[in-house]
Amino acid sequence: MYKWLYLDPYAEITFNHSRKRCLVFNVLDSKKYLFEDKEYEMIKRIFENDYSTKITDSDVKEYKSLISRFEGNFFGGIYSSIDKPLILYPIINIQRNLRKFKTISSRDQGTDILENLLELSIHFKENNSILKIDKIIQLIRDAENSSLKKINIYIDSYSTHKKEVEILISFLKTAKIKTYIEINIKDYYSFINDLPVTKSNELFALRVIIADYDFNEKIVGEKNVTLKFKMSNEEEYNYYTSKVSGRIDCDFEIDFTKADAAFLRENLFLNEEDIQEIKLTKQNYDANKTLNRNLFGKLVIKNNTVYSGENSSNAIASLDNDINLKQIIFDSLCRSNDWFLIRNNVKPCKSCVYKNICPPISENEIQLKKYNLCNVLN
Ligand code: SF4
Which atom of ligand 1 is nearest to the CA of 352? Predict the structure, then answer.
């Protein structure tokens, strides 16, 4: 009879080998346990031996505290048997599926591929070409059997794109997809005058963007809209909150392009204690190992070009050419960096024990090209 020190299959492990540290995450209750130095070495040994390793009586004495932590928290312990216990430890390999996927043509994949489309964003920017709205409407029609649940419309310049915005909104009234519209405060009143349906129809949610202290306070009394204040320091935040006291449908968004490092560090950076509080289902933990839950399934249209992320510079398709939604999604799955941009692929997160627990990489992090907005690894 031998003694085997084992971890249960619901104990997920991440390592920081250079610091001799590892984290055991219990996916059943989201509890997290840090181990260092010689305990890290033992967990590494368990991990490298398919979740169970043979131990001696002297190991039992030496690792008493580690073993009681395993047993006391019900994620592992000692098992006595002649044979090594078989533990179906967690392993997931979406890349293998993706490799297989790349060998088949998009045309052969039925409507299943459409299930990967979750969100579509359309930008009307001041200096951009007039959008080919007929092509966008065709894409949304083609998405009828997809999982598309959300459309975002960002209007930086209503006067430049008035006609196309009106055609699109008129179509979306019948498309039955929840549509979130963001519009600058300077264009809001002419927009709402032309398209009051965006306030009265539940399919639409309207957000008015306010930045640089530039707003008329009468907007604070406006009903059925959310006010979104872009700010980059505490002074701006205090100013806006004093103007909207009592109003609940307000969002405050940090403008990463203007905010200074001290403000970000104080208000946004994650601390180790914040991460300890994060609750994750097994499904989301596994998803964090393979794809970006923030960005997966999102297509962005800017300047008549389709991208697979807000900050992506690699075009997936051009509205100047014939378009095929299945081909666009197929190309996004095969070529997109954003949909599969996970912390395990970026520095310094890849060597951090929290890489599968931290929230997925956001557009802001991509824009800043800084992935550790935290006080853990800096
Ligand atoms: S953001 Fe990256 S470096 Fe910071 S705690 Fe999360 S995984 Fe670690």
Answer: 8
